[in-house]
Design brief:
Distance between the termini: 51 Å
Radius of gyration: 21 Å
Largest sheet: 6 strands, mixed
Low-confidence stretches: none
Number of helices: 10
Structural class: alpha/beta
Order of helices and strands: HHHHEEEEEHEEEHEHEEEEHHEH
Strand order of the largest sheet: 3-7-6-9-5-14
Mean pLDDT: 95
Number of strands: 14
Helix content: 25-40%
Shape: elongated
Length: 299
């Protein structure tokens, strides 16, 4: 019995996450079959008109290499911005977003696990980078063969370094890495770097005093600029609406943002937004970040 290619492509699209637009079409119809066949023939692969796993992997990687070329044209005219999930575009209400293939973009070269089927994502992990800026952070990540999906720089620019469907290595736990999206927010942490921020024109950072993590009170450290927090909330909202991560965080017995590890987080089963210290007692980032409060401002 001959394969129903239209039905096959519909099922493949639902399973793998591609859309007819990837091949210049609007619908799952015979025109799409023809377009896929043409695309396959141009690349010297079996031209059967069906986007199976091998064709999907080929076009997925091709799109990611120059993803900004595929941004919706009308949206570009309106100066709208996007982040990328599974090779597709999710809108974000923030003006300063730079994708990895754009001029000035930051990119992860290796040190992550590629996914070509839909990855099950239920957490978003917040980190501070202990670097002076996001460019330095990206260099450190690549040098150490680790990775993260996003960075937020000192001026509030959101950089996406990696498609969120791939699993980045950032959370000190395989269980969490494979179920999470991660961000590094620029913050050198040590107050001695205030002079650098002032010299570069960013101004003084807030100083966080009395922050408690894992039952210990930390020495004063530099906090995030307000514009970084606003960028973070915009990204959280885009991730929540586009991927479905609930606007929840680990809570303590009093209903406040938890300040130590969480068992569900460690098991990879928690659904919501967390800080790195919720994963392991070896980490303290992002101490002082009241996720519960910020999530209430995101809704």
């Amino acid at each position: 019995m001959a394969i129903d290619k239209i039905f096959y492509n519909e099922a493949s699209s639902a399973k793998l996450g591609w859309t007819p637009e990837w091949f210049g079409c609007r619908e799952h119809d015979e025109d799409l079959v023809k377009s896929i066949r043409k695309w396959q023939k141009e690349r010297g692969i079996t031209a059967d008109g069906m986007c199976g796993p091998s064709t999907h992997r080929r076009i997925y990687n091709e799109r990611l290499s120059s993803i900004d070329d595929y941004e919706p044209f009308v949206a570009k005219e309106k100066d709208e911005n996007f982040i990328v999930h599974q090779g597709n575009f999710l809108p974000i209400d923030w003006k300063k977003v730079v994708l990895w293939s754009e001029d000035g973009g930051l990119k992860i070269n290796k040190g992550y696990t590629p996914y070509f089927k839909k990855r099950k994502i239920n957490m978003f992990v917040n980190h501070w980078d202990v670097c002076l800026d996001s460019t330095t952070c990206a260099k450190v990540l690549n040098k150490r063969n680790i990775s993260v999906h996003f960075c937020i720089d000192n001026d509030g620019t959101i950089y996406q370094l990696l498609d969120t469907n791939h699993a980045a290595w950032h959370a000190s736990s395989r269980k969490v890495n494979h179920r999470a999206i991660g961000i590094e927010i620029a913050n050198a942490y040590y107050p001695k770097y205030q002079s650098w921020y002032k010299r570069k024109g960013f101004g003084e950072r807030p100083i966080i005093k009395g922050a408690v993590v894992h039952g210990k009170t930390l020495d004063p450290f530099t906090g995030f600029y307000p514009i970084q927090i606003e960028a973070l909330k915009a990204l959280w909202k885009s991730i929540h609406e586009g991927i479905g991560i609930p606007l929840e965080c680990p809570l303590d017995a009093n209903g406040n943002t938890a300040t130590t590890t969480d068992k569900k987080v460690q098991a990879g089963t928690f659904k919501g937004f967390i800080s790195h210290y919720h994963v392991t007692k070896k980490k303290i980032d992002c101490a002082g970040l009241d996720i519960k409060k910020l999530l209430s401002e995101t809704k």
